[in-house]
Amino acid sequence: MKKLRFLILATLIVCMGILAAGCTRQDPIFGDRDRHGCLIGAGYTWCESEGRCIRVWEEACGEASAIGSFEECVAAGYPVMERYPRQCRVPGGPTFTEVIGGQMTEALCTAARGHWNECSSRCQLENAGKPGVVCTAMCEALCECGGIAGFGCPAGYTCRMPPDIADALGYCVAEPGNGTKMTADQALARAKESECMGVGTLTGTPLYNEFTRTWWIDLTPSEPKAGCAPACVVNEMTGTAEVNWRCTGLRE
Known about the structure:
- About 20% of the residues lie in helices and about 30% in strands.
- The protein contains five helices and 14 strands.
- Strands 3, 4, 5, 6, 7, 8, 9 and 14 form an eight-stranded mixed sheet that branches. The protein has a four-stranded antiparallel sheet with strand order 10-11-12-13.
- Strand 4 (about 85-90) and strand 5 (about 95) form a beta hairpin.
């Protein structure tokens, strides 16, 4: 009888130990995996250079972290956002903005003792010292000015910087009217003889963008695209006109 009680007690102790171990054990995560074993359902993809599975919105793959310009981003096959200027987004990393002809160039900037920065941010420069302002990770090629080093701007440009901050760093912008070669009527005439007319009908009043030195004219497309609003963009520096599809989605 005593042996039977001992065996029952021992069995209970062993069972309790197994149950306790089961409570602390984490259940495995099931789901579809790719050929590298990355759990697709949890958002993991394979990073070849790192040799492991990562979530691209949490960290950039090693090969992506070396990208430093819009052109390199496009060449790597990352998504391009349909806006003007175009932007290319590195998953888990920064967004690079295309430098359009007629804008500030590195040679023009450095010749005026400016600081050329391929991955600057107007948002961060303009809102320096302002609490509660959050800027997205977006690279913009800018000619930075001011600062402790006293960087300069080319003739016809002025330094835009946050007010009331000593030795603040800013960026160069074209002075109003500087280099303007085209009026609204001239832009409209140029648009009417360009490829824009093959897309649809020009509507609205031409709007001028001083930063990019371009005229924007809305287009009513003959063949609409869902979520897109086209515009005819006339570059006053080159005299060219092209259609820009401003879409809410991404182009893979």
